[in-house]
Amino acid sequence: MSQPVSHKVDGLTRFRVDFAYDGTDYTGWAKQPGLKTVQGDLLAAMTTIFGPTENDFGMRIAGRTDAGVHAANQVAHVDLSDAQLKRLGRNPNVVARLNHMMSEAIRIHEFKPAASGFDARFSAIYRRYRYQISDNFAQKDPKQMRYVLNLTYALDPVAMNEAAQLLLGLNDFASFCKTRAGATTIRDLKRIKVRRNSQNIIEIELKADAFCHNMVRSIVGALIAVGAGKANQADLKRTLERAKRVETYKTVEPKGLTLIEIGYPADSRLGIQAERSRARRTLDEA
Amino acid sequence: MSQPVSHKVDGLTRFRVDFAYDGTDYTGWAKQPGLKTVQGDLLAAMTTIFGPTENDFGMRIAGRTDAGVHAANQVAHVDLSDAQLKRLGRNPNVVARLNHMMSEAIRIHEFKPAASGFDARFSAIYRRYRYQISDNFAQKDPKQMRYVLNLTYALDPVAMNEAAQLLLGLNDFASFCKTRAGATTIRDLKRIKVRRNSQNIIEIELKADAFCHNMVRSIVGALIAVGAGKANQADLKRTLERAKRVETYKTVEPKGLTLIEIGYPADSRLGIQAERSRARRTLDEA
């Protein structure tokens, strides 16, 4: 790791952390007292290197994930003081040291000084998730059991894909969200694609500016109903337009869900994007 | 499943069972009192369908695997009486019923009447295994943590592959086997190939008539020493020629090992092959 020289704000240097995890054995991302969480394990390892922290190193995450959900490419940032960085001593390979201390279920890919204006959460312009389902068409692979929802009946991915397109664009996704007081459920779904891959696994990929709580798993539940012939396009459209949480469709198991990518703009736009996202958030919470 | 009509021997119908498992949470294939094993779980599920058994349904396995070793395509046979088959009743879908009763860590792919002369173990003409290693070249994938040995140093797969070819052919592999009294350690290694795949995982693939106990994992340990520059071709050749168990090289962890394929001859040769294998085994044990 090269020693950071710039982008110090209030005496702190911001680092961008890129990492992956298998969420099976974790109670989600966010730290919770007494529970095994991804953030809890990461903070514990960082504390061993950088010393005790009172503010979780100012850590912020791009895509908060629920219990059992996986991440192939997650992004966080932390702010470290010169005193904390000094503790690196003669071994500045933070990636190797963190990975050595943690379970192989969490793997740090990069830990490097962030570009100016970078905020892991607020600079992000999109999040991309993938949900995997094995229907009765596929030969079941035990090595995929933690990452694929196994169904014993047939799904029609073409019908699912057609119906899915009705959800595209800027919509109030309240019907598919576990609402939080004061938080908006309006999201911009930029892409949704359902297809059967070469291993006969049905992949549902979704890309949006952001997702509200449970949104992917609720949409997948509705699309499974379509794929199994229990609902049609009109049903899905009606559900969306109701814009109120419904229990018509099952929120599917977390294990099939993986955060695939966090999208950021070019370095020159990181700060502006962060300001825009923050402003929107302030409006939400007003 | 079509009702079997032929190949009845001593009133029993032989079935071929094709299946896969993730061995992580099992104490190997073979049943052991009080331990969670693949065979133990399979027998329990079969007993629910076919009733109690005094001889484990005459079950025989093609490639017995150790604790923590996986199988992508394992083969076994069982012999069932008409009385046992009658218990299928109106639901002859044995595959679905077994899978429903077992953990997703074991998945039955096929359960069907065997061709005449078929013996899962003795009719087999080869076994193919794959061992996977991630060295410091690859970005670590938490979803592979149960199937790939993670190393923090670099390996040279080209050097490993070249050295590996020295092991080819009919050899006494005693140096790489945990010997069992009276059992031969002479094996015919038909193919061995080391390569870095498109995901930067080093794959070591071995094909032999059969493998003795610990053979793949001991060979992989020796090849890792070669790949890390700690041993050369001459060392490997000397080890093979010593033909006596050595502790020079580490027997690697089971988690990287997967049984990929059991090879059988054409149906017309199943019986003859079984007789040949049995005869050889009798010589071994004489």
User: Under CATH, the topology of the largest domain in chain A is which?
Assistant: Alpha-Beta Plaits
Largest interface: A-B, 23 and 23 residues
Oligomer: homodimer
The radius of gyration computed from the alpha-carbon positions of chain A, rounded to a whole number of angstroms, is 20 Å
**CATH superfamily of the largest domain in chain A, called what?**
Pseudouridine synthase I, catalytic domain, C-terminal subdomain
Number of domains of chain A: 2
In the CATH hierarchy, the architecture of the largest domain in chain A is: 2-Layer Sandwich
- Percent strand of chain A equals 25-35%
Provide a count of the helices of chain A. Answer: 7
Instruction: Describe the largest sheet of chain A.
Output: 11 strands, mixed
CATH C-level label of the largest domain in chain A: Alpha Beta
Q: What is the overall silhouette of chain A?
A: globular
Mean pLDDT of chain A: 92
- Please bin the fraction of helical residues of chain A: 25-40%
Compute the number of strand runs of chain A.
11
Q: Which stretches of chain A of 5+ consecutive residues score pLDDT under 50?
A: 1-5
SSE string of chain A: EEHEEHHEEEHEEEHHEH
Structural class of chain A: alpha+beta
InterPro entries (chains A, B): PsdUridine_synth_cat_dom_sf, PsdUridine_synth_TruA, PsdUridine_synth_TruA_a/b_dom, PsdUridine_synth_TruA_C, TruA/RsuA/RluB/E/F_N
GO molecular function, one term (chains A, B): pseudouridine synthase activity
Family (chains A, B): Belongs to the tRNA pseudouridine synthase TruA family.
Pfam family, one (chains A, B): PseudoU_synth_1
